[in-house]
Design goal:
Layout: E1 2-9, H1 16-28, E2 33-38, H2 53-64, E3 70-72, H3 85-95, E4 99-106, H4 107-112, H5 119-122, E5 126-131, E6 144-146, H6 156-164, H7 175-183
Parallel strand pairs: 1-2, 1-4, 2-3, 4-5, 5-6
This protein binds adenosine-5'-triphosphate and nicotinate mononucleotide (NCN).
Catalytic activity: nicotinate beta-D-ribonucleotide + ATP + H(+) = deamido-NAD(+) + diphosphate
Enzyme class: transferase
Protein name: Probable nicotinate-nucleotide adenylyltransferase
């Protein structure tokens, strides 16, 4: 069985927090690959503007470049409406019968799991892996495998806010992503 990690997200924009948690979980659980799954519309929050779906995809591809274990799975971008994970995982499990899926989530999402669509059915398709995130307690009654990581207080919304204010984002995201943001004048730059 191949062990595949999935990091679903809005990646608006992708930041070093995303890369760090994917890498930490990949090594801790000895995963064969981690697939980054950009959503079309986040089910639980308003989609912030500032970048098109194509821009988010291009930034994500650039962010993971160079890591042979990291891939982008863009299946949700082709689907209208909220990207419910159950719909996506049914397809991915079907397409990859020789894979075992580990769905990676930050502590904010761990606390929100009870509100996920068809969570009990989803638990039959994936193992959830939770990681710390400053400000959240990793508290849940659901079976979530916890991987210890150095806590990282970076979020896409904080980065968007800094960019809008003309403040520095150096070292919070990869250089290639910063270049793309500036070249395409994303997030008010
Ligand atoms: N700094 C972080 N530490 C731990 N988990 C994180 C961190 N940043 C993002 N994640 C996790 O990565 C996944 C995708 O996150 P997402 O792309 O929505 O980024 P975000 O920074 O939470 O965005 P926003 O600030 O716009 O809400 C989620 O499971 C989220 O919990
Ligand atoms: O399926 C759900 O009900 C559901 C509810 C909240 C979040 N998710 C997924 O969790 C991942 C992280 O979400 P987000 O909004 O923080 O990018 C992403 O893949 C979302 O599609 C899924």
């Amino acid at each position: 069985m191949k062990k595949i990690g999935i990091l679903g997200g809005t990646f608006n924009p992708p930041h070093l927090g995303h890369l760090i948690i994917a890498n930490e979980v990949c090594h801790a659980l000895n995963l064969d690959e981690v697939w980054f799954l950009p959503n079309q519309e986040p089910p639980h929050k308003k989609k912030a503007g500032g970048a098109s779906d194509e821009d988010r995809l291009a930034m994500l591809e650039s962010a993971i470049k160079g890591n042979k274990l990291f891939k982008v799975e863009a299946i949700e971008l082709g689907r209208e409406g909220p990207s419910y994970t159950i719909d996506t995982m049914k397809i991915l499990v079907d397409r990859n019968p020789d894979a075992e899926f580990y769905f990676i989530i930050g502590a904010d999402m761990v606390e929100y799991l009870s509100k996920w669509r068809q969570i009990d059915e989803l638990l039959n398709l994936v193992t959830f892996v939770g990681v710390q995130r400053p400000g959240y307690g990793l508290i849940t009654t659901y079976p979530v495998q916890i991987v210890d990581i150095p806590a990282i207080d970076i979020s896409s919304s904080m980065i968007r806010e800094r960019l809008h204010q003309g403040r520095t984002v150096n070292y919070l995201l990869s250089e290639g992503v910063i270049r793309q943001i500036r070249e395409k004048h994303l997030y008010g730059t």
